[in-house]
Amino acid sequence: MPLDVQTLRKDFPVLGREAGDGRRLVYLDSAASSQTPRSVMDAMNDFYERLRSNVERGVYRISEEATGRYEAARTRVAQFVGAPAVEGVVFTKNVTEAINLVAYSWVRRRLGTGDALLTTAMEHHANFVPWWHAAQDTGFDLRVIPVREDFHLDLDAARRLVADGRVRFLAVGHVSNVLGTINPVAQLVAIAREANPDVVVLVDGAQAVPHVPVDVAALDVDFYGLTGHKMCGPTGIGALVAKPERLEEMPPFLTGGSMILDVALDRVVWNDPPHRFEAGTPMIAEAFGIDAACDYLDTIGMDEVRAHERALVASFVDALSATDGVTVYGPTDPAKRSGAISFAVDGVHPHDLGAMLDQHGVCIRVGHHCAKPLMRWLGVSATARASLYLYNDMDDLAPLLDGIAAARSFFAR
Amino acid sequence: MSMEDLYQEIILDHYRKPKNRAPSLEGEDVHVHHSNPLCGDEMDLRLRVVDDRVDGIVFDGEGCSISQASASAMTLAVKGRELKDALDLAEDFRRMMHGDEPARADDLLDGVAFEGVAKFPVRVKCALLGWMAVRDAIETYESGASAHTVTHEE
Known about the structure:
The structure holds two protein chains of two kinds. Chain A is α/β, with parallel strands linked by helices. Chain A folds into two domains: 5-30 and 301-412, Aspartate Aminotransferase, domain 1 (Alpha-Beta Complex), CATH 3.90.1150.10; 42-298, Type I PLP-dependent aspartate aminotransferase-like (Major domain) (Aspartate Aminotransferase, domain 2, 3-Layer(aba) Sandwich). Chain A contains 14 helices and 15 strands. The radius of gyration of chain A is 22 Å and the shape is globular. Chain B has six helices and four strands, in the order H-H-E-E-E-H-H-H-H-E. The longest helix of chain B is centred in the last third of the chain and has 22 residues, at 121-142. Chain B starts with a helix and ends with a strand. At the A-B interface, helix 12 of A face loops of B.
């Protein structure tokens, strides 16, 4: 069933505000951070108004109830993305922290000279810099799958890069935050495991979980990162979803309270996963929030969200591509792309375009999108990016096109 | 705040037809490269110094209209000045970007057109890029070096 966007918009207080000069706010930056529905704010307020206490250590009623809700949020996230097991869900600040946890507690301890880690040229810095840094420190070979002219990964090159059997770890983004490309994760995993059956796989799901149905167990990957604030949830919470056996073999990354079973002056016993990786008081209200965000998305239905965005991105890409002076960087087939649309406008720097669109009440992202290797491949220093979500519809297209036209005439006159 | 407050006609003129924009400078004494990682702006600035004066100055690079136009206007304001005087003028421009009245409005020439940028905090660093580069170029020259690279943080 098609989404009733006009009704959905009422769930998001920010979308009801005006953007100056009485203009409607047109929010096209959900790939940076999505808006938050009222139900998520209510869930977080419920913690502060009724259950405010610490978790995992209280012996009184409200703390026990808060702990139950915190652990229920873990179960909810596990269910939402088809985690192999609830104990495999570690709450983190965001995907960046999830990836660094893996970089420090797994990759840096197990890869070294003679080994290789395979990633791609279209990664967000969060899924590139931790590996680059680890390679510098431990001496493994960092290999990069190039991007083809059609904005998809070069799978033939991937086959060549794994051929010597030395790739022990694969780190790939599920959906590109710049190009919108949906990467063929299952195919890449198959390519890597054919050359080395023991290869360990991490997927950066920051741009996938909010927009497409995800089943981590079916993908059969070892680690999968997600973040709350791009999927209608709060900032400050994300998760590392892992196979429990991977977490079992990992020492902690951050140490301190909560993550121990026993501490004496001469010995420390780590807690079991996932608590081993959640040192200190966690983000409790945010866990309530991400739980409610999963509920919100499931009530709409992720298949419906995907179908809506797929139809919408096709219209936006068609309209932008048909606009004089506009170049779209990304796949043309809507079946193989998300709603993140990067583009350039002739004669207008992205920064100036962003300022002009702001005058039209339109919020887009401009810059390098934390993907400088990809910017270098595109041969640009920055792009403009409009990104879509469940609360966008065709009403948002005209303000975008009007702003682009205004910028062209303003800067070219 | 409208687009016209930010993008005065003088600024757009410098953007469309930049002055002293070139990839090289004959007899170059110092070359600095400045970048702004947040927006991806890149700027190369080259100076030729004769008798302690800015005898030649060119910039090249990539960036938004504000950064490119400001660098263009800067070269006109700085060319021919004693190094110490040019540094003083750069400081006057920097203060203007933080909301102060310029003390040397006449000497800034078209640079005064950027006064309104101070009301757009996210664009101040764009307008400052060229001026920070010329200050660095002079200080680099005075230290006896001939090249310097700077990455600006927020």
